[in-house]
Amino acid sequence: MATVTFSDTTRFYAGVERPAVDGLDLEVADGEFLVLVGPSGCGKSTTLRMLAGLEGVDDGSIHIGDRDVTELPPKDRDIAMVFQNYALYPHMSVGENIGFHLKLAKLPKAERERKVREAAAVLDLTEYLDRKPAKLSGGQRQRVAMGRAIVREPSVFLMDEPLSNLDAKLRVQTRTQIASLQRRLGITTLYVTHDQVEAMTMGDRVAVLKDGILQQCDTPVGLFARPVNVFVAGFIGSPAMNLLKTTVDIDGAVAGGTRLPLTPAQRSALTGPGIVVGVRPEGWTIGDGGYEAVVEVVEELGSDQYLYCRDGDRVLTVRTPGMAPWQRGEPISLAPKPGTVHLFDAATGDRLPDA
Amino acid sequence: MSVTDDVEAPARPPAKPVRKPPRKPRPAPGSKRLSPLRVLGSAIVWLFTAGNILVLYWLLTASFKTPVEIFTKPFALPYQWFNVGKPFRNFIYAWNNAGFGDAVLTTVVLVGLATVVTVAVSAPCAYALTRLGVRGSGPMTNAVAIGMGVPFQTVIIPLFVVLSKIHLDNEYGLFLLYVALSIPFTVFLMTGFFRSLPDELEEAAALDGASPTRTFFSVMLPLTRGGMITALTLNAIGLWNETLLAIVFLKDQAHFTLSRALFTFYGAASYQSEYGGLIAGVAIVVLPMLVLYLVLARRIITGLTLGAGK
Amino acid sequence: MATVTTPTTPSARVVKAGAHLRRKKRLFWPFAAPALVLYLAFLVLPTIATVVLSFTSWAGAGDTPKPNGVTNYTQMVASDSFQYAFGNTLIYVFLGGIGTFALAFLFTMVLRDMKGGKTVRAILFFPNIVAPVALGMFLGFVFKYQPGKQGLANYVMEGLGADAAKFLAPSNVTGVVTASLIWASSGFYITILMAAVDRIPPYLYEDAELGGASPWQKFRNITLPMTWDVVGVAGVLWTINALKIFELVFVLAGPGTYAPPNEAWTLGIYVFDRTFGSNGTPDFGAACACAVAMIALVSVLVVLLRRLMRRDAIQF
Predict the structure, then answer these.
(1) Contact, A185 vs A29, CB < 8 A?
(2) Phi, psi of A253 (to 5 degrees)
(3) Cβ of A75 under 8 Å from any chain C Cβ?
């Protein structure tokens, strides 16, 4: 049983008025893979480091299982962490690196070596056990860092952007490896990244942070389908959602010629006349009135095509099937498909109720 | 970017009242653990540091005290000389009796010229050894660096004999010696700086049609300005404090350097138990270094560690 | 070099770059010669001369050197003063070195994550920029023994209820100098080592923290192996500097005008006394022999140290 519970957890840094993490309430289930995602400086790494015990907690508490670990030193928390730069010891061989924490824990040598060999076998590192990290490729180093974490058989894994130092192709490969390894081991995992694609593809649930405040924690599908505010809507999904600001009149809102009626619940949730209409790039009806724009940039990806279209000051992103005949400079008319739009209060940024 | 119509993306405002930042963020748990090693270590560090400050305090106050005060009230503030209205009596005594007036002039001129000439001679040499791609540069650099390990005592006898024969056993000979004996360290230090410069700069200058000489003077030399200032400072400190060669080569009291004058003054004043004057003399030699150090501490330290660490 | 072969005139570009390189190489001697000539004239040649002169009998000015084989060496090795000088020098190199580096290591362990560490470093470094003569005089006052007019050290000892000690008596002075040496130079080595420690990525220490490493384990498993090269260089520097120690001992242990008692001698004092000392008759031949002994000792110790450090570094 290793759930992780943050209760009103808050962290300040010296000389900064605003907390780095502000009253975080978050529960991670046993065996769950939770991804913390957000732009840099959002407090995601601080959250991880507080859980690891590398940072103090200024307010609130952290529990692992039933244990309050807020004041516990890192070594007593039964956690293992994979650092962004892997934190491999350059003077130790791969085997020594993987076994270092076991050595610190004064495990007998034979048992230590057995565990190191097991971990190495899991990660395909057996033939490299005697090499120094400097002689390894980026992907191998990453696996050594993973090996060092799994050999401890902790109750919680912490991973701080472990893929950010790999090239694009390797990153996609390793992504699936880590995810499947985690499911196989069934160890509760907190994973920090700034890459929303990584977050959406790996996590059981994804927690989106901004400015130290938890915005939303949900499954990838939930985040994508029902972003709770403008920030999450713009952050999740690639290319990002089009956010169109408009005003509400008696009949509802109009965006790109499409009339979007509001329910009474939505209308009463509004704090002002401003409303933001969110349209995913794939949520447009093309060629049937609406915004009259000009295709400015065409990104051909083969399976998809992204069009960036200018209508006066605004740039609209459109996703169409790949190999479409769109050219630069072509006129295009875009109207939101009524059923797929997301509605937000322009003043607070919060999502309006769906019904 | 698809955020259009200047849609601000406001974060959800905090539901609870705004938190007050604590005066000091809490340290990581366990970092304050009291291991015996940490306690003992911190204790020694603080004792050692406090001792150093105490000793500096003692030096500064003692230079204003009478001998009786120095030895019976070492921690008290100076009183006697201030009481009789001659607070700088020790300094005046040391200044007059040790001939510090002439010595300051000699030292400043000698040390200043020697450091500038040393760097002027060493910088091109370091450049030639690192960036001209001449075969044998590596071994030659090492050979020069080995010179740092040669104690002055090893070379002092032949040099003394030869220099006295050509009547250079005076400040002019000392100047030559200072320059020559500072070369190994300075060349070594400067090779480190030149080596750290990227090749592209020289190549770009060459493509622009600059001659190699011009490239050196207008591109490479300005880039190592930091290194040259470090070399100047370190050599200035070293030569300011140099005593052995000054004792051997300077015979005329009118041309003594400061440390040489202090050395002679020590012998003379010890007999007269003129401790106040002696400590004032020490202070006169030390204080300029203290001021220089306070101004340039960071550069001095980084320069020294660069020389040693690379 | 800029020999990017473009399809148009590849050969022309190569030749051009080659010409530039040749022009550069022509600069070598004008640039390097002044420093190298001074180096040869004032360091290399005198060293050779010293070695040659060490095999002659030569009183000094007014006398002419006469070859006398290894007599200088045999006489020197048999003499009390040389044995004291040699022994003391070794004590300063080894005992002082062990003390200085032990202290420096301790400080790196404590200072690494201590607030105000930079200030502490700056304070500890200060004695290193004070002239050794001034330092020696100053320590002379600190360790002065004279009932009723005690120096700082004895004043404190008497204040604590202990008996005053004759710190500077010939039998004690070696210990006092060793301690002073450690005090004065540790700041320098702390600074060098700390600069190396600062370059160690902090996440290694964080990882060790997660594993529950004690300060000692962090030092043993991270700090020491990661700074090993710098420790080696620092060790060489220490050896070079400790071996030529002269002014500090000369002033601290003696009256200042002439050499201190034999028991306190170092090799540097031996050379000085046999040539320029106002005590006794000069003997340049013997002094040269001692100077050769100094440089031989430096070479042997530095080579030994490097060998020792190299083997250990891989063993990790």
Answers:
(1) no
(2) -115, 155
(3) yes
Mutate to test the interface with B, among A22, A68, A345 (most CBs of B within 10 A): A22
Segment B63-74, tens digit of pLDDT: 888 888 888 887
User: Who among C209, C210, C316 is closest to A91 (CB)?
Assistant: C316
Among the listed residues B61, B64, B108, B117, the one whose alpha carbon sits nearest the alpha carbon of residue B285: B108
Looking at this protein, which amino acid is placed at residue C221?
N
CB spacing of B4 vs A55 below 8 angstroms: no
Q: What is the pLDDT of residue B2?
A: 42
Looking at the predicted structure, is the pLDDT value of residue B236 above 80? yes
Contacts of C292 in chain B (CB under 8 A): 154
In this complex, the residue of C204, C217, C228 whose CB is nearest that of residue A87 is: C204
pLDDT digits (tens, 9 = 90+) for A25-84: 999 999 999 999 999 989 999 999 999 999 999 999 999 999 999 999 998 999 999 999
Residue A335, φ and ψ in degrees, nearest 5: -130, 135
Q: Is A15 left (phi over 0), alpha (psi -120 to 50) or beta?
A: left
Asked if C43 is an interface residue toward chain B (Cβ–Cβ < 8 A), one would say yes
pLDDT > 90: what percent of chain A? 79
Which of A56, A211, A241 has the CB atom closest to B27's CB atom? A56
Burial A84-114 (b: 16+ CB within 10 A, else e): bebbbbebbbbbbbbbbbbbbeeeeeeebee
- C-alpha distances out from residue C270 to B29, B39, B101, Å: 57, 44, 32
H runs (alpha helix) in C79-169: 80-91, 97-111, 117-125, 132-142, 152-159
Per-residue pLDDT tens digits for B24-33:
788 888 766 6
Asked whether residue A339 carries a pLDDT value surpassing 90, the answer given is no
- φ, ψ of residue A218 in degrees (nearest 5): -160, 175
Tokens encoding A226 = 């029902």
Return all residues near C308 (Cβ < 8 A) that are at least 6 apart: none
pTM greater than 0.80: yes
Q: Does C142 touch chain B (CB under 8 A)?
A: yes
pLDDT category of residue B304 using cuts at 50, 70 and 90: low
Of A270-279, B133-142, B271-280, the range with the lowest mean pLDDT is B271-280
Cβ within 8 Å, pair C206-A83: yes
The C-alpha atoms of residue C175 and residue B303 are separated, in whole angstroms, by 32
Neighbours of C201 (CB within 10 A): 14
CA distance C179 to chain B (A): 13
Cβ of residue C215 closer than 8 Å to a chain A Cβ: no
